[in-house]
Amino acid sequence: MTPTLRDRWLEWRDGLLASARFQRWAATFPLTRPIARRRAAALFDLCGGFIYSQILLACVRLQLFEKLAGSPQTVAQLAPRLALSEAETRRLLEAALALKLLQKRSGGRYGLGPHGAALLGNGGVAEMVAHHALLYEDLSDPVALLRGQVGETRLQRFWAYAGSPDPGRVAPGGAAGYSDLMSASQAMIAEEVLNAYPLARHRCLLDVGGGQGTFLQAAARRWPHLRLRLFDLPAVAARADSAFEAAGLSDRATTTGGDFHRDPLPRGADVVSLVRIVHDHDDDSALALLKSVRAALPDGGRLLVAEPMSGASGAEPAGAAYFGFYLLAMGSGRPRYPEELKALLSEAGFRRSRLVATSRPLLVRLLVAET
C-alpha cells in the first residue's frame, strides 16, 4: 500500500519527536517551550496514573471527602480521624491537593477541591473507585492478560454471569455485589439517557438487563403513565421486585427472570432499553441479543442502546482504553464505535438507527433504533 501524504508527514513527525536533540531544543526555544512542557506533563501523567488512582482509592477508603464536607480541617485535626500519623496525613493531603481533590484553606486547613467535591456529590463514582481494586489486581500483568495466560480473574468472579456457562443459575449472593454496584451508578446514567430521549410518546418500557430497576424507577418518576417491565437473571429480577414494591411501583412494574442468551424476551413493550449491556458481550452474543429485542418489539417500536462508546470527542480514553481493558479483565465484550453498533442493529433487523447527543458522552452515548 502506497503511504499517503498524511502517513509520510506522521512518520517525519514521529522521527522528530523521538530525537533527544529535538526534545532538548523544543524545551528551551520560547515558541515551543510551552508545548514541550505540556507534552512532558501529559506523558508523566500516563506513567504516574496508577499512583494517582491509588491516592484516590486511599481517600475513598478513609472517607476523607466525607470528613471534610463543610468543615475544612488541619493536619492535627484529621490525623486521629484517619488513624494515621500527622506525617502520613500530611503526605496524603498534599498528594490529594496536587490532584485537585483537595484545596488549601486559611489557617493551614484543608478543604474539598473541585474533584473531591464533585466526587462527594456522586456516590456511584466512589463505589466504582473502591471496586477498581479488583481491576488493579487483574491488570498487574497486562501482557499476560492480553495473551490469555491468566486464569479466572477477580472481575470474572465479581461479575458472576460473565464466565458462567449457565448465567440463569447465578445464586442471589453472587448477584448482590454487582447489582448494588450497577444500581449505585445508574441514577446519573438514567438522567443522561432520559434527558436525551423523552418517553412521553411511549406506553410501556422494557429494560433488558435492568438490574435492580434503578433506570425504570427514574423513568417512572418522569412519566406516570408509563408501564414498566424488567428482564434480568432470576436472582437479579427478584431484587428488582423488592425494589419496585418499596418504591410503590408494584402496580406499574412487572419483572421477568430469565437468561436472554436462551429465553425469549417478554413482548408487549413499545420501547426497549439496553443500558450498559451490549458492550458486555462479544459480537455473536450481542447480535443474538439485538435479534431477540427486535423479535419482542412491534413495528414502529424503539430500542435505546445506552453505553460508553469508542471515539467520543474529548472522551476517547474512556472507550478504547478504560473499557477496552476493563472488559478484557471481565472476560467478555468490548467497547464499540457507534458505526459498529449501527451495523449490528441493521443485521439484527432494525430499519435505521441514529446517534442522539447526551450532555456527558464520557458517561454514556445513546443510539436509538427503529423497527
Number of helices: 16
Q: How much helix, percentage-wise, in residues? A: 40-55%
Can you tell me the CATH superfamily of the largest domain?
A: Vaccinia Virus protein VP39
Order of helices and strands: HHHHHHEEHHHHHEHEHEEHEHHEE
Terminal CA distance reads 41 Å
CATH C-level class of the largest domain: Alpha Beta
Give the biggest beta sheet. Answer: 7 strands, mixed
Shape descriptor reads globular
Number of beta strands: 9
Strand content: 5-15%
- Largest beta sheet: strand ordering: 5-4-3-6-7-9-8
Uncertain ranges? none
Structural Rg: 24 Å
Structural class determined from secondary elements: alpha/beta
Q: How many domains, as an integer?
A: 2
Mean pLDDT comes to 90
CATH architecture assignment name of the largest domain:
3-Layer(aba) Sandwich
CATH fold description of the largest domain: Rossmann fold
